[in-house]
Amino acid sequence: MTGSAVEVPGVETRGECALKVRPGEFRPAVFQPATFRPAAFRPSLFRPALFRPSVCVQGECIPSVRIPSVRVPSVRVPSRRLSSRTLPEIKSKCVSVLAGRDATSYNLCADVLFAFDRAAIRPGATAALRQVARSIDKRFPDGTVKIDGHTDSRGSDAYNDGLSLRRAEAVKRWIVEEGGVSAWIQCVTNA
């Protein structure tokens, strides 16, 4: 290895957890003025070539193996600041919008979208989803949309990864089929 990694701690913005309410009831929002992620740096790495000679034990032989060297270039992740935005087409109290220099994030209340341990979109979520779909189609018609699926911390990591992906796929299906969004869409998990 040709250097050590540099770790920069993130900046934590405290917020109050949202109150649990039944679908259709008013839910007070938490305002988050900005989110900041500092820059990070991983230096380049080098692993020299390796050679394992052939070995014979009781007449059984394993041939020799040569593994070439590997060089991994350094990576610099730039800092990013996302600021809260108000968009006129977003009227739902359950949708918050954060925007940075090259990305915009629409955050929807998970308990409005899905029931506990489910990946089917609740009927009461359609108004918020329709506003988001129209906003994406208006502001980013040729953009790329990344949908992050989330779950709570109950259950195994493998189960929650599957549930969060099913949730992301359900939102993707809805905004394409019902919302008419034609942008390229990628689903990821964040269990």
Which characteristics define this entry?
191 residues, alpha+beta, 60s Ribosomal Protein L30, Chain: A, four-stranded antiparallel beta sheet, two-stranded antiparallel ribbon, 20% helix
Brief digest:
The protein is an alpha+beta fold and 191 residues long. The chain has helices at 110-113, 126-139, 157-177, and strands at 34-37, 40-42, 45-47, 50-52, 55-57, 60-62, 65-67, 70-72, 75-77, 80-85, 95-99, 104-108, 144-150, 184-190.
How would you portray this structure in words?
By secondary structure, the chain is of the alpha+beta class. It has a domain at about 80-190: OmpA-like domain (60s Ribosomal Protein L30, Chain: A, 2-Layer Sandwich), CATH 3.30.1330.60. It has three helices and 14 strands. It has helices at about 110-115, 125-140, 155-175, and strands at about 35, 40, 45, 50, 55, 60, 65, 70, 75, 80-85, 95-100, 105-110, 145-150, 185-190. Helix 2 (about 125-140) packs across helix 3. It starts with about 35 loop residues before the first strand and ends with a strand.
SSE run = EEEEEEEEEEEEHHEHE
Terminal-residue CA separation: 33 Å
CATH superfamily label of the domain at 81-190:
OmpA-like domain
Structural class of the secondary structure composition? alpha+beta
Name the CATH architecture of the domain at 81-190.
2-Layer Sandwich
Q: Count the helices. How many?
A: 3
Task: Calculate the mean pLDDT score and round it.
Answer: 79
State the shape: elongated
CATH fold label of the domain at 81-190: 60s Ribosomal Protein L30, Chain: A
